Amino acid sequence: MLEIVYQDDHFVAINKPNGLLVHRSPIASNTDTYAVQLLRDQIDQYVHPVHRLDRKTSGVLLFALDKDVLRNVQEQFANHQTKKTYWAILRGYSAQEGTIYYALTNEKGKSQEAITNYKTLETTEIDVPFGKHATSRYSLIEATPVTGRMHQLRKHFAHILHPIIGDRPHGCNKQNKLFLEKWQMGTMLLHAAKLELVHPISKKKLILEAKLSTEFSRMMKALEFEYQLPRPKDLPYKELP
Q: Range of 141's domain?
């Protein structure tokens, strides 16, 4: 059963678990389970994914229940009128804040502008030897991508030499091996925490939030992070005037 974080006559949003594909893809033919199919069966209604999340990324995933609403919100995405907030754990100490400007090549070979803003929420150093170092260092960050390119955050943080823990193939294989052997952790630590948009019918701002996965929370504790990430409100969504 998928966790629904928002639902009305026009939308439904879920907290997508790590490892679940949004829809059928030729690059992932090893599964016949998809969020579109599961949600359709769960609410007994056809759904249209408004945007994408990587298979390995957890968090807020929005679906439209009719094509007019779908077109409206996709225009908001295209015109940068939505805001997406992600949390991730990176290798090493990232800068206190920054903007990554690094063009990415899409599946058709076309270079596209890609921009990511981020800030470091906390850094940690734990007594776990890694390579020639006596300790291991990690950063908990909040990222707000301006553009929405495929694997953008994964590629951008790898580009600045602070790859997301658990990412393959863009991450650090040696770190991924360490996490698998020491903590039995093979999940990518990237979570789509919040999505903000304007409801096309009510014209009010929606803030959709998804709680962290158990695995992400477990690794925050294992890595000795003390920062308290905001939790979704008691209501399944927040609507602003």
A: 3-240
